[in-house]
From TrEMBL:
SUPFAM superfamilies: Acyl-CoA N-acyltransferases (Nat)
UniProt-listed Pfam families: Acetyltransf_1
InterPro entries: Acyl_CoA_acyltransferase, GNAT_dom
PROSITE patterns: GNAT
Superkingdom classification of source: Bacteria
Key words, A-Z: Acyltransferase, Transferase
Organism: Planococcus halocryophilus
Gene Ontology molecular function terms on file: acyltransferase activity, transferring groups other than amino-acyl groups
Record's keyword annotation contains Transcription regulation: no
Location of the N-acetyltransferase domain: 10-148
Name of the protein in its database record: Alanine acetyltransferase
């Protein structure tokens, strides 16, 4: 089930942190880069975030997507799934929920260029690559955009 998460609640922020640290460790391994900001985000930083959070749960929280609503644009900041629940369609369900809710909006996201599973997921929903940026020496992120 997908629900809105109250990330300002300390217990919820702790759950979000646990999932994102596990998921970003996997991405960090793929990229060979452990400087991903959310990998080191504190509970307090999650609680103070101005992003909107939704989560997928079946008995426990298994995936999280956060985003910001800008003028006519949804900026996806994180899409993380507990590695114990990879390949179950949770990322697809979370992304689909936001795309459906904000049908008339454009979307943007960036992910590690070495994170082929994430790039494949976004392209499955029609996102197009718009560029690649170097975030640290030899470490690249792919920017993707969906024009509705």
């Amino acid at each position: 089930m997908i629900t809105v998460l109250n990330h300002q609640d300390k217990q919820m922020a702790e759950k979000i942190q646990q999932i994102q640290q596990a998921a970003y460790r996997v991405e960090a391994e793929l990229m060979g880069f452990f400087g991903i900001p959310q990998l080191h985000e504190t509970i307090r930083e999650i609680q103070n975030s101005t992003e909107l959070f939704i989560g997928y749960s079946e008995e426990q929280l298994q995936g999280v997507l956060s985003y910001k609503v800008e003028e006519g644009m949804i900026d996806i900041h994180r899409l993380v799934v507990d590695p114990a629940h990879f390949r179950k369609g949770i990322g697809k369900k979370l992304l689909s929920e936001v795309l459906k809710k904000y049908r008339a909006y454009d979307f943007k996201v960036s992910t590690g260029s070495a994170n082929q599973p994430a790039i494949t997921l976004y392209k499955l929903f029609g996102f197009q690559e718009t560029g690649v940026i170097e975030v640290a020496p030899g470490i690249y992120c792919t920017q993707l955009y969906l024009n509705n």
